[in-house]
């Protein structure tokens, strides 16, 4: 193979979330011409943020980053001042009935980042170069010879040699690949998820969380499982400047329907239905103020099945390919693997080592197989976590947070 480059192929990425941006980094590093399209109006359009654990996929993530993003990476940490020791890289799971530590899971190499902070770092150079087109909601994709034509809701169009759909759990790209068929739709899991982000302004309200663990902890063994985490640390010496994130997950059938998905009514509902939650998780919910933000939604999943790649021109990655429950904390970590493998597939085509159709088809088959396993595991893990009798059957109990898909 002679490795000649006839023309630099153009790759269009739909969705400038973490998956799209990370893939863009890897592709740019490899010399591809990348452009991202996102339906939002800009980086600040969505204020919602959450902490994400990255450990087994950390080396893969770092290998994709540009030098400047790699240098800025520590700024994405929830607590950039914290020294990561083996104890910090091992998060506790608390018995939701007794408050005792049930399990402590080693997560070697763990770094806790927030979605917004990492997204900002990943987006910086693409935004500066005008390579992210905001306000572009994908509506249609047409294969036209070697090119794919993208049509957006604002009536504009664009063309690319390759299209990667990284447009999240309710992916339009996925829907289009399945002809808008029901089979592509993410399914309600029957599990509700509420999150809140109190900035207490009072060290005495932050300390109970940090005393559990410097990064956070989760409960199991009860029908309403919870988690608490340190999300932002402005001044490491003053806990009054810290922000906490809490999460509560319950079966939809067990409680009345929430009156609202966000705002004061949603918060009042969570407070009124959390009397059975143990401390210190309950107080974090109780102390959340209306100005802090509270969101409720039913979690959705989609167990991937093979999609048509149109001769290797179109495929998916990240939550668009495998929207899973938060249990096992691996949605983003699998997205990192997708990004790395997609870049490798395109390099092998460009260098004449494989044909476009074969390389992207092989990439897709691997994502579907791995994603289906991870989504299914997240569902069974949720089921097992809500009863003390079954907690010991969880992958968490048997294998900690190690990679299992
Ligand atoms: C509370 C919580 C905790 C989590 N914890 C962990 C963890 O500890 N470890 C872990 O690995 N994972 C975790 N995850 C999962 C992780 O956050 C996701 O897997 C990851 O952020 C998905 O990124 P994405 O880029 O694929 O999708 P998204 O973040 O959803 O990005 C999709 C992008 O596509 C854009 N878009 C959507 N539709 C269109 C359209 N039609 N046209 C153009 N653009 C469009 C959106 O505007 C958005 O910017 C957690 C998730 C949650 C909610």
TrEMBL record:
Entry protein name: FAD/NAD(P)-binding domain-containing protein
Keywords: FAD, Flavoprotein, Monooxygenase, Oxidoreductase
InterPro entries, sorted: FAD-bd (IPR002938), FAD/NAD-bd_sf (IPR036188)
Residues covered by the FAD-binding domain: 112-377
Listed cofactors: FAD
SUPFAM superfamilies linked to this entry: FAD/NAD(P)-binding domain
Organism: Canariomyces notabilis
Molecular function per GO: FAD binding; monooxygenase activity
